[in-house]
Amino acid sequence: RAPGRRPGPGGGDRHQVTARTAAVALTGLLVGGCAAGDASLREPQLTHPPRTAAWLGEVEEGQGTATAVERQYDGAFRLPLSDDWAWEMPDQGRWELSRLELNTPLIDGDRVLVGNSRTPGLFVLDRSSGLVRQRIDTPGPVQAAPLRLDDGWLVVDSFGTLLRLDHDFKAVWPEPHQLNATVYRAPALAGDLIIVGTASDTVVAVGLDDGAWRWSYKRDVPRTSTDLAILGAPTPTISGDTVMTGFADGSIVGLDLATGGLRWDAEVGVGKFPDVQAEVLVHGDTILAAGFGGPVVALDARTRAIRWQADTAGASSSMVLVSGLLYTSDSRGRVQALDADTGNIEWTWELNDRQFGPPVRAGGWILVGDVAGTLYALDRFEGTLAWKYNPEDGTHIAGIAAGVAVEGRQLLVPTAAGRLLSLVGDVGVSQDLAEEPRHRRDRVLGW
């Protein structure tokens, strides 16, 4: 109490009364905040960028070594997006088939690693301009995303040539490993083993140190002359000492990591296109898998007994598992969100006569492109269309079959027109009152 001050009427200190009043008010605020319920569970769509980035896990403590280019694109992913740059993929004219770009770009600091279907090699682009910095020679086109190692890279081309490279993209092995099969998906790494799935229904293990063959598993998939094969094979999933992957006959298998021996198999895909194109996912003690034409199935990881099955859902490419929700795109023109614990379909977004590429999570959105040439952003909680991309020049972007790459505010989109597009979101400014927590409709206490 300040010198000369006396207690107020009744012997109480007005400062103490004020403190008690503030405490009661704060308690009411806390109760009110908890009572809001659903608002605190919903991921915000728009907020103060640094707070959003931290909330989404995009900013790590102690991160202070970003380059100028990384800072240029730093921040939370926000809609709408605008054109940044475009890279015209080279075309040597050696292939007459229709173009289909399946390679998801990989953003690495201030550069982008990407291949294309018409020209051999892996291209290293400047992230801020799309200019080619370097080209790494490969016998065939690169459609599988490169895999980052602690001391370099693993690169596999569509001809089945597997290379281990150092940070400067120099060969580490004396000779590349020849898988003798087509590869469209990235390899997986398990300790000192590289595990690759090929389009010939084979899984191959190669030594990381020497690039030598360790083991292989071949799935006997009977085919007739009228059977249609779906492109690719999913990246194998490593769970403990088991390798899990799917095949064109609709089955998924568990292989011994050390020997490649078959431990178990289970039937998943059915119908005319049973192919398992989506990577097997692990959700607690549950295995999630899907056929190209459906269904989506959850299996007990120990017994492989079916826990739930969604007959009206399927996965034509990779699936995404986020906070207990499983996102799929199927061959019937639908993007769906399923409860990974129960199989209940939370929402369905559908376009007639469309085929979608793989869904990609970006903040509170699910991004997906269709092979007719449009990119969509869906609210990942409600499945409503929030935004779609149309080039400013009005050109048709000719199909998006690959997954897009998202890093900070930047989005990279490979198209079947042979272009890699860079789109960028707005920079949020704290002076915008709509960005301040007290002015937000979906404000959450503690922001």
Please give a structural write-up.
Helices cover 9% and strands 36% of the residues. The protein is mainly beta and 447 residues long. The strands form eight sheets. The chain has a four-stranded antiparallel sheet with strand order 1-32-31-30, with no helix packed on it. Strands 2-3-4-5 form a four-stranded antiparallel sheet, with no helix packed on it. It is globular, with a radius of gyration of 26 Å. 41% of the residues are buried.
Q: What descriptors fit this protein?
A:
about 450 residues; disordered N terminus; single chain; about 35% strand; mainly beta; 4-stranded antiparallel beta sheet
Brief overview:
The protein has four helices and 32 strands. The protein is mainly β.
Would you report the number of β strands?
32
Strand order of the largest sheet: 1-32-31-30
Please count the helical segments: 4
Separation, N- and C-terminal Cα atoms: 34 Å
Q: Can you summarize the main beta sheet?
A: 4 strands, antiparallel
Indicate the low-confidence ranges by residue numbers: 1-47, 57-62
Classify the secondary structure makeup into a structural class: mainly beta
Give the fraction of residues assigned to helices. under 10%
Q: Tell me the strand percentage band.
A: 35-45%
Taking Cα atoms only, what radius of gyration do you get, to the nearest Å?
Answer: 26 Å
| Whole-number mean pLDDT | 83
Shape: globular
List the helices and strands and how they pair.
Layout lengths: L13 H22 L2 H4 L7 H7 L12 H5 L8 E8 L17 E3 L2 E4 L5 E7 L5 E10 L5 E3 L2 E5 L4 E6 L10 E2 L9 E3 L2 E6 L3 E6 L5 E6 L18 E3 L2 E5 L4 E6 L5 E6 L13 E3 L2 E5 L5 E5 L5 E5 L9 E3 L2 E5 L4 E6 L5 E6 L9 E3 L2 E5 L5 E5 L5 E5 L15 E3 L2 E5 L4 E7 L22
Antiparallel strand pairs: 1-32, 2-3, 3-4, 4-5, 6-7, 7-8, 8-9, 10-11, 11-12, 12-13, 14-15, 15-16, 16-17, 18-19, 19-20, 20-21, 22-23, 23-24, 24-25, 26-27, 27-28, 28-29, 30-31, 31-32
